[in-house]
Amino acid sequence: MEKEKIKDFAAKAFDDLSGAMASGLVYVGTRTGLFRAMSGRGPMVLHDVVRESGLQSRYVEEWLNGMVCAKYLEYDPAARTFELPEEHAFMLASDGTDHFIGGLFYAIPMMLGVAPRVAQAFVEGGGVPFKDYGDDGIEAIDLMNRGLYEQRFASYWLKSVPDVYDRLVSGGRVLDFGCGTGRVVLALASAFPNSKFVGLDADPGSIRQAQAYAEEANQGDRVRFVCQRVDDFTKDQDFDLITACDCVHDLTDPTGVLTALKGLLNPAGTLFVVEPKVADRLEDNINSIGSMYYGMSVFHCMTQCLADGGPGLGTCMGAERLEALVKSVGFTRFEVLEIKSQMTLFYSIGH
What residues does each domain of the chain span? Predict the structure, then answer.
């Protein structure tokens, strides 16, 4: 064995362990509002952070120390002050924006909390069903996606398919499949007042939250949320646009669902699919984004699919695999859209 290789790997392993603990601390900072309490306030002593956050001093002290060591906060030893740099606050204390990353950390306990059950599934098969992630799972997914959907979907993403954009401006029919808490439906309904929107999801908890958000936004009479499987969904007209955001890789019956969606789509309509930005070849995913997505696959996406008897496509389904899947059910048009994103790929699919 090479001693230097052992030394390098040991350093790598401790970096990963440190990152795991740091992720937990970032989750706490997101959930308790500590990052927001420090945002824009410059150097703060412990007492300042405790006062602004309203939290317990001893816990806050240890959190601050840990975040300094993880390089999320800056520390002045002489003044004994802690500071959340403006550049860090831009990503950590910016809830509801398209650059907020706190939702990703919020999902860490939700996913790792089922790690023992996932490990057992390695032995016995099956997995952890979506419903078992509970309200924390619903909230984590909402936090991860809300800002992106509200800030980018109508104003940026849909402009890459101008015929669809123009149709919604004049008045079209839109179905958001796998709508979750309804953020896509509500964002698009706000941007396109002449169009009609339906959100469809099989999870009752997600639909209840979507309906609550619609009432809060005073859009309860403009949008409709349906808790139903797509093969049980009865249309009264074809849809001009069907969106499927970050959910195709989760499907327990991908060919059946895509066939049903094809049947709901207007012959001239568009299926707009949003999926994780990964490559089809493993060797092209050897980076931090790929590592994160494979972990999410094992602890959430793949396991909840396998729990329901699905194929377990997994989070890391690249463009070639998706194209083969949609064309296997009869779609003929498949386009990877030129939309800039570090973590997401976008597809325009049609009859």
Answer: 3-93, 109-350
**Residue 237 phi, psi dihedral angles, 5° rounding:** -150, 165
**SS3 (DSSP) at 240:** strand
Q: Check: CATH 3.40.50.300 for 109-350?
A: no
**What is the third-level CATH fold of 3-93?**
Arc Repressor Mutant, subunit A (1.10.10)
If 0-12 CB within 10 Å is exposed, 13-18 middle and 19+ buried, where does residue 254 land? buried
Give the global pTM.
0.94
34-84 pLDDT per residue, tens: 999 999 999 999 999 999 999 999 999 999 999 999 999 999 999 999 999
254-260 long-range contacts, CB within 8 A, separation 24+ = 254/310, 254/311, 254/313, 254/325, 255/325, 255/328, 255/329, 256/231, 257/177, 257/230, 257/231, 258/325, 258/326, 258/329, 258/331, 259/329, 259/330, 260/230, 260/231, 260/233
